[in-house]
Each structure stands twice: as C-alpha cells, then as structure tokens.
Write a structure and sequence with these properties.
By secondary structure, this protein is an all-alpha fold. Helix content is 72%, strand content 0%.
C-alpha cells in the first residue's frame, strides 16, 4: 500500500519540526499581557453605574480604530485556526507539541489588544462584541488543504500579520499601543520563521509539489480576517492609510519569502513545478502593476484633498 504524500511529508519533516520547535523555545521570551495594558485608564461602564461608551472618549483616529478592530477580530478567531493546523499536522509528536504551543502563544494577542481597547475606551465595546460574535460564528475554513499549502499559507500570513500589527501600532500615535503591538508582532515573526523553515525543508523533499503549493497560496491569498463583517471596506481604509496595502504585500511579504526560498533559482523541477513557477511569475507582474496603480490613485486623492479651496 502506497503511503499518501501528505502522510509521508509529515513523517519526513518531523525532525525539522522538532529542531525548529527547540530553536523557537530557546529564543522565545516570556511576556505577560497584563503588563502591556494601562489599567489606570480604565473605569466602569454603564451597567455597573459608570459611563456608557461615547465616541468622544476615544483618543484614536477613525482609521486607527478600524485597524485595531480588524487586528483584534482576526486574532479572536484562534479556535478556527487551531482546528485548521491540528487537522493538517495532527496531535502527535513534535507536530502536536508545536500546534499547542503556537495556539497558547497566539491566545495572548487577543487578550491584550482587547484589554487595551476596553480600558482606554478606544472603540465601541458593544459593536466590537457583536462583530466578534459574528466573526467567530462564521469561522475560518481552508477546505482541508494539503499540508504543503498550509505551510506556504501560514508563512505568508504570519509575515503579513506581523507587518499589519507593527504598522497599526505606529499609526495609533499612542506609545502604549505601539509597544503592545510591537510585542505581538515579535511573536508573529517567530511563528513566521518556524513555518518558513518548514517550507525550506519541504522544497528539498518535494520541490515541484511545494512550489505548486507556494504559487497557489500567493495567487489565491486572502488574509484570515476576510470573514470579518465589512472587511472589504475596512481593508480599503487601512490600505489608503498605508498600514497594509498591495505594495506592502508585494514588496514586504511575498517577495522576501520567495527570495529566501530561491523559488526562481530552483533546479530539477518537473512539469508541475515549472508550470507553477510560470504562473507565479505572471501573477507577481500583475500584482506589481496593481500595486503601482493603487499608489497612483492614492497620491492623486491626497493631492486633491491637500489643495486649499
């Protein structure tokens, strides 16, 4: 009986997982979410005899509130993400240890971002809770992807999330939020390195099939927060502000990983791999063009608004 490719890959890659798990645990620094929250700025809400939320209580700009909401709601969906990677990797051995360690680390992100927003009254807590309920009830489902596709997707996704958190923190112009989101982004970076190294190892074992997975995930990439209510409108506002846009995605997310893996220098590919590389190259050209056009539209819009009547 022939062993399925997915099973064989998980077995072949387990030593890589174990080595990278050990590396991760060695370099990871313990941190406490409560130490990043300005508790002294908190007070009771209306049902406890305090003051109900009003827009004027928030010191954040509308775009900063939107970006923080999207980042938080994305992190809130952790149960769905846990299910996805456990389904792909399993619960046994180094794979299972990583799945649960990753989940435990990710769980801190929503905790501290929500606490920050509530104690600073940064966003409407009622609307935030309604959006959380809707997002989590929708869930996140990759459709039972092959492990190679999961490796590739999470590599890009973790890097994208790291940049989104980091840029959001800077955009808030609040030193507390900036420090908090920089800490969250540091976690995301370590997670990206773990998955990036898995893809590197997979390219040595199954170069063509792995390149096919990379191409598919780049071409069909969507942020995990795409199921958030009103995501398209919110993403457009975030892009217009330069927090996360097509240029950032092309230059700072997709290309750094592709260069690291050397996808355009790989040799010995079969027909599947060569076709994937051709499709990837063509898509990158289109993405670069789209990013350039978006930048031009944004610049024209900024110029129009800067003109004094």
């Amino acid at each position: 009986m022939t062993t399925p490719l997915s099973t064989r890959l998980l077995l072949d890659l387990e030593p890589t997982v174990a080595a990278n798990l050990d590396r991760h645990l060695e370099v990871t620094k313990e941190w406490m979410p409560h130490e990043y929250v300005p508790w002294s700025r908190g007070r009771d809400f209306g049902d406890l005899g305090g003051q109900a939320w009003e827009l004027g209580q928030s010191s954040l700009s509308p775009i900063a509130r939107t970006a923080l909401e999207v980042n938080l709601l994305t992190e809130d969906n952790l149960p769905s993400y846990h299910r996805e990677i456990e389904r792909a990797f399993g619960r046994d051995g180094a794979w299972g240890t990583w799945v649960h360690r990753w989940t435990a680390e990710e769980g801190r992100h929503a905790i501290c971002i929500r606490d920050y927003l509530l104690v600073t009254r940064g966003v409407d807590p009622d609307e935030l809770e309604r959006a959380r309920m809707r997002t989590m009830q929708t869930g996140f489902d990759t459709g039972d992807k092959h492990p190679l596709n999961v490796f590739a997707y999470v590599s890009f996704q973790e890097l994208a999330t790291r940049i989104s958190h980091r840029n959001t923190g800077r955009y808030t112009q609040d030193p507390v939020a900036d420090k908090l989101l920089a800490r969250v982004a540091a976690d995301e970076n370590l997670h990206m390195l773990f998955y990036r190294n898995l893809v590197t190892a997979a390219l040595e074992i199954e170069p063509s099939q792995t390149l096919r997975a990379i191409a598919d995930e780049v071409i069909g990439f969507q942020m995990p927060g795409s199921i958030i209510p009103g995501f398209a409108r919110k993403a457009a506002l975030i892009a217009k502000a330069g927090i996360y846009d097509l240029r950032i995605h092309h230059d700072d997310v997709v290309w750094p990983l592709l260069r690291h893996w050397g996808v355009f220098d790989l040799e010995g590919l079969d027909g599947v791999g060569e076709k994937a590389r051709e499709e990837l190259s063509a898509f990158l050209t289109r993405l670069d063009t789209q990013a350039g056009r978006f930048e031009e539209r944004r610049a024209r819009s900024a110029n129009r608004h800067s003109v004094t009547p």
